[in-house]
Amino acid sequence: MEQRYDVIIVGARVAGSSLAIQLGEMGKRVLLLDKASFPSDTLSTHHMSHLEYLRKLGVLKEVEASGLRKISRMRTYIGSSFVEGPRASYTIIPKRDLLDQILLNRANDLPTVSLRENHSVRDLIWERKQVKGVVVEDPAGRMKSISCDLVVGADGKHSNIAYWVKAEKYKQQNPLRPVLYGYYDGVKPLKEPATEIFLHEGRIGFLFPMEEGRDCLGLEIYPEEFKQMMKSPKESFEKMYRSLYGMDMRLEGAVLRGKIIGTPGMPNFFRKAYGDGWALIGDAGHSKDPSTGLGINDAFMQSFLLAEAIQLMDQGKSRGEAMEVFQQERDRRLNPGHDLTLNYVQSLRKWTPNEMALFQAMAANPMVWNKLVPNLAEQLKRESPDIPLLHQSIQLEAQSFGFNPES
Asked: Are strands 81-91 and 71-78 parallel, antiparallel or unpaired?
């Protein structure tokens, strides 16, 4: 058995690499393992709005220097009408091969962090009922046992670590909608780039501006459409995307880079976040439909919370107490986004011809908006009694634009 580590992290993408950086800065001996080799792309929500995480990790300038556009507006289309407005802070939309590699380089520069690519974890080492390490297969097929004080599963929604420790699932919901997306060069841009969301025929289309001249285009579709679309994904994807407002013209001359990536859907769940000698972060601990674009931000948040828990242990708090704080705070922060996302996706439907006709007529009528705007907040509150978080989240964001809840 080789050198003992303080923490072994299984999975070296956003959650795992960001945790390794934080623990390495604390002087912990960290082994970061991944079955993949980097740089490599992966299924992703791409939308990076909580940039403070990148700043704290010391990589924000490098990520932004790669040419990513700063997106400070959002546009939502309904039929041939749209609503657009500013966001409280800007968003960047990196490809994952870029973001993950920058994080890994930062982790690998720390003297107490070791990164091993193309290494697959095949089993856990147990001592009585406590996890004490991992069994790893190296690229040559050799098996090694490596011991540690804590094994962290950052190995995705189908986490082997979670499976081996029998981590309990709760708040489960089967996948709701398939998602397809691809990277396109040469899409005709808006005058001022914005995240664009299309609510069309009960589906969701999205356009994420990445670097200059490159965009991520995506569709969230009906479950029964997925198998047929994946028979000829590029043709089916572009045909459906061209039906969205303005996109037939904007896709003229655009070129798909790589291929259309598709998944039948993301499972929705929480898993117990810790146990004797183990913890879970990222999609291994919590997964949900990607329609609200929260996945990367959630992964960073979990790694920061776990790093804080480990720091609490160094300060004298028992492992059980510190890890319970980690799980409770994780659930407290993730529950609102989980509930809002499921409500959003489950309430999507094709609007009736009458509903669409009335909306299109209202959208272009300033007298209508003159009457509606003073009452919109109360109207939203009345129309969403089943999901009060929606009204609360809008009110909170409005405060960044000068809204005073006391007036």
From this structure: antiparallel
Q: What are phi and psi of 347, to 5 degrees?
A: -90, -5
On the question of pLDDT at 49 being above 90, the answer is no
Q: In whole angstroms, give the CA distance from residue 216 to residue 185.
A: 9
CA atoms within 13 A on the CB side of 322: 19
Cα distance between residue 150 and residue 127, in whole Å: 13
DSSP assignment letter at 29 = -
Give this prediction's pTM.
Answer: 0.93
Which of these, 184, 193, 208, 394, lies nearest to 291 by C-alpha position?
A: 208
Q: Three-state SS for 6? A: strand
68 CB-near residues (< 8 Å, 6+ apart): 92, 93, 94, 210, 211
Q: Determine the Cα–Cα distance for residues 255 and 253; give it in Å rounded to an integer.
A: 6
Length of the chain counted residue by residue: 407
Residues 238-288 have pLDDT tens digits of: 999 999 999 999 999 999 999 999 999 999 999 999 999 999 999 999 999
Assign 3-class secondary structure to 146-187: EEEEEEEECCCCCCHHHHHHCCCEEEEECCCCCEEEEEEECC
CA torsion through residues 16, 18, 19, 20, sign: positive
Report which of 99, 390, 110, 125 is spatially closest to residue 277, judged by C-alpha positions: 125
The C-alpha atoms of residue 54 and residue 62 are separated, in whole angstroms, by: 10
- Give the three-class secondary structure for 339: helix
> Do 115 and 107 touch, CB atoms closer than 8 A?
yes
115 forms beta bridges with: 32
- Asked if the model's pLDDT at residue 2 lies above 70, the reply is no
Determine the Cα–Cα distance for residues 242 and 250; give it in Å rounded to an integer: 9
* Cα gap 158→406, rounded to integer Å: 46
